[in-house]
Design goal:
Oligomer: single chain
Structural class: alpha+beta
Number of strands: 33
Number of helices: 15
CATH architecture of the largest domain: 3-Layer(aba) Sandwich
CATH topology of the largest domain: Alkaline Phosphatase, subunit A
Largest sheet: 11 strands, mixed
CATH class of the largest domain: Alpha Beta
Length: 832
Amino acid sequence: MLRQTLALSVLALLSASLSASAQQITGAPGSPSATVTIDGSQLPPPPPPFGGVIKETAAESTPYWPARVVPPKGAPNVLLILTDDQGYGVSGTFGGVIPTPALDRIAAAGLRYTQFHSTALCSPTRAALITGRNHHEVGYGVIGELSTGYPGYDSIIGPDSASIGRILRDNGYATSWFGKDHNIPTYQYSAAGPFTQWPVGLGFEYFYGFLGGETDQWTPYLYRNTSPVYPWVGKPGYNLTTDLADDAIHHMRELNAAAPDTPFFVYYAPGGSHSPHQPTQEWIDKFHGKFDMGWEKLREEIFANQKRLGVIPPETQLTPWPDGQDAYGGAKLPRWDSLSLIQKRLYAREAEVFAGYTAYTDHEIGRVIQEVQDEGKLDNTLIIYIVGDNGTSAEGTLEGTFNQLTAYNGILTLPEVVQMLHYEDWGSHATYPHMSVAWSWAFDTPFKWTKQVASHFGGTRQGLAISWPGHIDDAGGLRSQFHHMIDVAPTILDAAGIKAPTTVDGIAQKPIEGVSMAYTFAKANGNAPSRRDTQYFEMVGNRAIYHDGWIAATTPPAAPWLLATGKLPDVETGYNWELYNIAKDYSEFDDLAAKMPDKLKQMQALFKTEAAANGVYPLDNSGFSRALTARPSATSGKTEFTYVGENIGIPVGNAPSILDRDYTITADVTIPEGGAEGMIVTLGGRFGGYGLYLLKGKPVFDYNFLDLKQTRWEGGVTGEDLFTRPLAPGKHRIVFDFKYDGPGLAKGGTGVLSVDGHELSKKTIEHTIPLLMSVDETFDVGADTRTPVDDSYDVPFRFTGAIDKLTFDLGPSQIKESDKPAIDEGMKKSDN
């Protein structure tokens, strides 16, 4: 009797607790099959009280299992797809000339949105997408590589801004993330973590993808959860674009086999079409000759397609080609007819490779969508397919480049002969390419500007398609409501019947600023007023404010393809403003600022209000020079680094930086009987970097200046035995000492390679890499994990001796804050 009374009392308390928090249990409480749908306001939910009976023996006791948390009944699977660097005019679905049948499939089954927006740059958009909050509110006022020590710009998603992955996971979803993760602070990439900002720390239970803004698709900077992986080794023809789809499909099949009734949330974010543009050859071949008409005629073709498809209003005007008009802040792009035959051939090739990469990416996305159907889950899956995290990229310079790292380091023009040497292998493993900005402008039709430019729709207008069978009754319909990336997370929560939490891990949450788009799903609401009436935009000083059909925007003072290498005006007072009534002027064609100064002032005041409320201040229009800002890594401020034995995969942010300074590398090695060879230390690879190694037993230091010039220090120049023979068995000290010709960026210097105190080689180089030696290669001691720094060896080129001690001694940086705004004029053109 007492036992029953106690059990009933506990059950009564449990029932009261569940009722108070609106939780719902299915199945017999306490049974292994019991499930619970939680209220969700507090994550994780408080542990339920034990509902059984505990006595001294199991025979006298009653077991009670905690109920398994499940989403509300009918909650859909969610497949969230985000491509990269694709503006509004890229996809065939939104009028482009590149076929995108997977996107067509979603649009035909659901809806296309014609006024959906990004932040104009990679990681800020992605932070807004996964949190439902404006990008400055979650630390991503700019990409992580350019982060600064202010709350709106520190690249840290705080614990007060739980991601959609965390919310869904704690409500019973199986969560996973595939592809690009550009939302980890660059100084937290290493094995030391912390991992709170990695997908597994943000609520995604499985991650397979690459870190940072981009990676080589042939030898990617790839992780599974928090461990580096190298799946291309021994696999000729490997490409990450296919591998991501393979892994996502495999993971989804595992989930289906193990827990077929558990809803999944798959965030699928491939690298396409961000540089480097690297599709397989078959996809490049599909577009041979397709862009010989040039970029102006491409714009006209896209514009006509957009009108035919109805994805722009019929009265839309095509904005003029930028010929240096005041409306474009002096930006100027060449006319196709002004180019030489060689230029036309090269530029057409660039577009063919970009198109091949885009089509290839959509094809692999289509395989993931097909897997959902093959598992019989398509009818209960919400699929959100976003075309690009910003407008098409202008970072390839006016000419395009076979190696994007040249542009990132301020080299904005390359010798034509060097470019044409890569015509046949453009897009292959031998290149790291990007295309001319003139193509990028065309692929953003009908708008002005490109990626990075948050003030105009060329940087922020994205195609969007959503399907959800049984919940969207207007298959193939169009929606013109004004929406933003922050509206995706609340749309998913709305569809799942899950509320945003008020606390997570005991921490009060910032409000989700987005609004659900689910109201647009019904055909009856096709023309409903937009529930987003205000949205600010800001990126590196370019800014805009939307309100009730109007938008005010600053005129970019410099073209983004100059990468902020010139002098910029005062960020607050030196910008002109434009004004558009986009309810009537879809493409921002007719600037009304001069005609309506009072309206403009009203909009400017609204921007300041929104900026203050969202952590936008302080404004900063410096660009890639911010890469030189010191960040709080575990190695910040260190000038001496010591390693023993093999250490591979150390990220650039945790490695000794030899940029713009003196440095000495000292390697104490032991050579075994029979000799040794292999990599002692390297950072970077085929597209820029350095390596100290033994080749056939002889010391070599190679400095790869962005695949434009190789400088090798090695023995064998004096004819003495010391310099011509391999190192004898025993202990040796190899030293490379470099004196930098500073102060300033990208200066040259003189290096000396010596062994056991004897000079082997002394050489001077004219330039050094100023800002970025590698994006996706690591600092490796004792081996080379990705691409070789030169062609004299094959990776992994493991050192076959012993590295007893490797030391880097760094001199002080020879650049100052005042040096950062202007990269040396000599770097803007390479004569190598």
